[in-house]
User: What shape does this take?
Amino acid sequence: MARLVVLGGGVAGHTTATFAAKWLGSSHEVVVVTPNSKWNWIPSNIWVGVGQMTKEEVTFDLAPVYKKAGITYHQAKAVSINPEGKADSDKPFVTIEYTDADRVGQVETIEYDYLVNATGPKLNFDATPGLGDGNGQMGENTVSVCTADHAVHASHELEKCIEAMKAGNRQKFLIGTGHGMCTCQGAAFEYIFNIEHELNKAGVRDMADMKWISNESFLGDFGMGGLHMKVGGYVVSSKLFAESLYAERDIEWLIGAHVSKVEKGKLAYELLDGSTGEEEFDFAMLIPPFAGVGLKAYDKAGEDITSKVFAPNGFMKVDANYNAGSYENWKASDWPRTYQNPDYKNMFAAGIAFAPPHIISKPMSSPNGTPINPTPPRTGMPSGIIGKAVAHSICDMITKGEDAKLHEASMAEMGAACVASAGKGVFSGTAAAMTVYPVVPDFEKYPSTGRDTEYTFGEIGLAGHWIKHILHFMFMYKAKLNPGWTLIPE
Amino acid sequence: MKKEEMNFQKHEQFTLTMMPGIFAKKMRTCIIWQAIRFAIINIKMLVVVSKSH
Assistant: This one.
């Protein structure tokens, strides 16, 4: 019997574990180690953040689902990996620390035959002074929608602002990214439109000043270097598409911005041209930068090999080309295909946990040397597809032998959908729906724009809004492993 | 001034972009048109998903 240990229970980890358990059956063991007791469909946190959904509607308890799937579940965080075992044993193992109320702080080791690191990101709030609380958690100056609890808090703060506006006090809203190296602009993009929609609904939009602040060098970069998409019969840059959306809604933008400090009601920033400035706010939702969760790795002798297994940002090294050099030399083929660690063949990384070879957007920095560019998005659909491919590879290695052909899921051959939907009513909402193919542009295959414009398109209207609703219910249904869950694509 | 042109004047940033007119806005909420677009977008997304696996 082989044992597969999956670290992390987010989109990538949950997909890997559930498919592996289904394909392997009871003859092998699948173990999930995740510090959370609940699964969260993160894209719908946006609706929680404006009070249109409850935390319960976007989360569910993992324990009964894993019991149903025959998966061993530890509510714990992974601390370290010993891929070579220890002095008296060649068996690799992970060290975990329990987070559930009964065993909090208890440390245990779990041996494995195969390991998937799908730990997702550490929300690195403390990278920006004042954005974090100094202890790794979100500070009190801003709000976030990165977790369901954060989104509930954001919704309460938004409600206070709406009440203030109803009482005749103008409010300033700042939404965007809280550091020069952030990703997930799409989430903030969706949130600002949802807030605008809610303010209109509450009849207080004319009392609000709204501003977008982000590390993108142009509006519509989205961490993918922007995209050219088909809109209304034209092929247009996402810059024009995004600027039109903001201008139509009377939302100003400040781009190429590295937020350097946050205080109560005020933040400081540095721009790509080296200039600095300050913005005041009454409500700010700033996405924090992501980092690896801080896993350590040790060899058989107990020596620290963290820098061998992980990139400096804490994400795990996989089969990517980490020596691509300067921007001019970057190619689609630099991106990983199998997500297998180059040194330890029984170890994989999926979702946000893998170290990208480089960013996708053009690297930029201010004259002061501050890097200000989005890091690559790898959430949602790519995470699910990668998780499934990794599960497939490991199942084949277990059932067919270690030399089995690995399954591939390159982000340069994979599409993604982003639906920024405002409002929740079936006929009262609206959405900007975008599909991009591939996520990482391939200028050898698509020399003009790097992408297939037949499948890279943007659309505004109710249709995208309906799709967003359907995606919410489909993915919650799938993640709960309800009948027919495997028929729903990632 | 037409309603859809008002925002061009609100901020210098807005002057160089495009704004939807009345017809474009109506089509965004026209149930029949959106039902057609819903079918088309879904088909396209399914193709993208199938190409991605």
